């Protein structure tokens, strides 16, 4: 989708809420589920032009991938038209016609567009890196039908490599630790674990787990992975829940007269519920951790129900 002005205002308001909460959350679950109508506070220091966080590190899948799959043997690529038709420079590997959500967030934070890990060089890494990979999941086997992809575990390993790069450029371990602690981590994982694992007939998981058990399995892995990022220095995390996946085009195309699949929508509910519990536990158990849950499903239900308010 195009990143139009009205959507920019929406994410600006959303980000304002997130950042306010990041400065105040302590040992509690914070859920961001609706945009706000009031103007957001400045996200950039008007005197210096600096953003309020030094860097943005992004982990996820095709919703926020910006080119990491371009040079690996994968069927999950978007470096060709019509992708990128509204992006200055054409197709880049983003699975949309313009900017992604995290591109907009970076701009609102006063940061440049965050480079893909596969392309980040030199001082670029000091402002953040995007590790997201189309078809990637929480589980390592997820997305195997697309051949190449970079699972979340590998994305975290790539972040460790970035830390080594940054340490050599910014004065050593102490300087990098301070920067990472103040940086924002955006994580959006889990959709492919359903679409390209649990719901795929050539994967055994649906025969091994019911929906609750699978949601439990995913969040067990997710907890370990987010804790790894915390142990690597991250403190401010925005974790996106799953949206109404029964309403996405690939599910609609399977039939049901163009209607959303409530079976799929119900299938992912245990995951979202478990992630909320996970975030509450992480905030309570990890010193100085500030995790925010983005209730994507509720947010977009609000957009659909109140289209006029969003200019659609």
From TrEMBL:
Any keyword Ribonucleoprotein?
no
Pfam families per the record?
A: Lipase_GDSL
Extract one GO cellular component term from the record: extracellular region
Main location per the UniProt record: secreted
Q: Where found, per UniProt?
A: Secreted
Keyword field contains Methyltransferase:
no
InterPro entries membership = GDSL, GDSL_esterase/lipase, SGNH_hydro_sf, SGNH_plant_lipase-like
Q: What UniProt keywords apply to this chain's record, in alphabetical order?
A: Hydrolase, Lipid degradation, Lipid metabolism, Secreted, Signal
Task: Offer one example of a GO biological process linked to this entry.
Answer: lipid catabolic process
- MF term (GO), any: hydrolase activity, acting on ester bonds
The residues the entry assigns to the signal sequence are 1-27
**Which family does the similarity line name?**
Belongs to the 'GDSL' lipolytic enzyme family.
Annotated protein name in UniProt = GDSL-like Lipase/Acylhydrolase superfamily protein
Native source species: Arabidopsis thaliana
Traced from the root, the source organism's taxonomic lineage reads:
Eukaryota, Viridiplantae, Streptophyta, Embryophyta, Tracheophyta
